[in-house]
Amino acid sequence: LMLTIASTFASSLGLSTAGLFFTHVSLAWCNRTTIEAGYKGKSPYSLGPKRNFEQVFGVLSATWLLPVPPLRKVTDGLQFP
Predict the structure, then answer these.
(1) Looking at residue 62, what is its pLDDT?
(2) pLDDT tens string 38-51
(3) Ramachandran class of 48: left when φ > 0, alpha when ψ lies in -120 to 50, beta otherwise
(4) 3-state secondary structure string, 20-78?
(5) pLDDT tens digits along 3-44
(6) Within 10 A of 53 (CB to CB), how many other CB atoms are there?
(7) Which string of b and e fits 16-45 if b means at least 16 CB within 10 Å?
(8) How many CB atoms lie within 10 A of CB 72?
(9) pLDDT given at position 20
(10) How far apart are CA 23 and CA 18, in angstroms?
């Protein structure tokens, strides 16, 4: 019984986390926030998928998957390129 409860809890947590992950990847792809996701039309801030991800994670490097600050920042976070 305990294994079934733990498996159910782990599965539901995994599915929820996966849903949030893919939702936020798609938002970063289009350079939108969660509030802007409900807006119609193309985002005026979208620079294309690669440059959108670079704005979030920094220039493409092996450190994208590590929890460290980017080596070279694309922006200061206050100015749009």
Answers:
(1) 79
(2) 888 888 888 899 88
(3) left
(4) HHHHHHHHHHHCCCCCHHHCCCCCCCCCCHHHHHHHHHCCCCHHHHCCCCCCCCCCCCC
(5) 799 899 999 999 999 999 999 999 999 989 888 888 888 888
(6) 19
(7) eeeeeeeeeeebeeebbeeeeeeeeeeeee
(8) 8
(9) 95
(10) 8
Q: Is 81 helix (H, G, I), strand (E, B) or coil?
A: coil
| pTM metric for this prediction | 0.71
CB-based burial of residue 7 (10 Å sphere; 0-12 exposed, 13-18 middle, 19+ buried)?
Answer: exposed
Predicted local confidence at residue 15, as pLDDT:
97
